[in-house]
Amino acid sequence: MQRPKTAVAGVLAGLALAGSLLTTAGPANAADSDSPASAPAATAPKTGHAGHGKSLCERVPHLEKRINKALDRLNGDAQTRGSIARMAARVQKAHSKGHEEVATYLQDRLTHRKELKPDLTRKLRDLKAVAAWCEKKNDAKGGSGS
Questions:
Q1: DSSP 8-state symbol, 80
Q2: Can you give the pLDDT of all 146 residues of the chain as single tens digits?
Q3: Residue 62 in contact with residue 53, Cβ under 8 Å?
Q4: Beta-carbon-side half-sphere exposure of residue 28 (alpha carbons within 13 Å)
Q5: Is the Cβ–Cβ distance between 20 and 126 less than 8 Å?
Q6: CA 87, CA 81: separation in Å to the nearest integer?
Q7: H or E stretch including 101?
Q8: What is the Rg, in whole angstroms, of the alpha carbon atoms belonging to the chain?
Q9: Are 21 and 56 in contact (CB under 8 A)?
Q10: CA-CA distance, 107 to 119, in Å (whole number)?
Q11: Greatest extent of the chain over all pairs of C-alpha atoms, in Å
Q12: CA distance 85 to 109
């Protein structure tokens, strides 16, 4: 069974966000360990949090664009491919023609799309908080530099 492209986009956006957060937390945790492998990181000068979250902050606009695109598609009208309205119309059409097995399959896909909408909305809200954090971090970096 193929997943709709919006589902894949939502999952990939979530994974990219989680992966970015884990990637930035890994070196910070490694610097706290007492193993000899972390000795070079421990000898680095402690000048704030230079570089932490840089890759995440660079990806925020791209992730925001992808999530907005997925939400626009889900909220589209019955003519928009991937929209909730279009899938609901397909379910209704299958019921009216008496294709109950097809209607059940399409209803499951419709349920999945309806579940995506609040999840993507939450991810967008969280991403806006990350963008605000990045902006605050950049302002602090620029203000204390010279």
A1: S
A2: 555 666 667 766 776 666 666 566 555 555 554 544 544 444 444 445 556 778 889 999 999 999 999 999 999 999 999 999 999 999 999 999 999 999 999 999 999 999 999 999 999 999 999 999 998 888 777 655 44
A3: no
A4: 11
A5: no
A6: 9
A7: helix 100-143
A8: 22
A9: yes
A10: 19
A11: 73
A12: 12
Question: CA–CA separation, 130 vs 136, rounded Å?
Answer: 10
- For residue 42, give the nearest of 29, 51, 53 by alpha carbon: 29
As a whole number of Å, the end-to-end CA separation of the chain is: 57
The Cα–Cα gap between 56 and 123 comes to: 14
SS3 at position 63: helix
Q: Which of 69, 63, 75 is nearest to 129 (CA)?
A: 63
DSSP string, 4-73: PHHHHHHHHHHHHHHHHHHHHHHHHHHHHS-SGGGHHHHHS---SSTTTTHHHHHHHHHHHHHHHHHHHH
Alpha-carbon span 47 to 82, nearest angstrom: 48
Count how many residues are written for the chain: 146
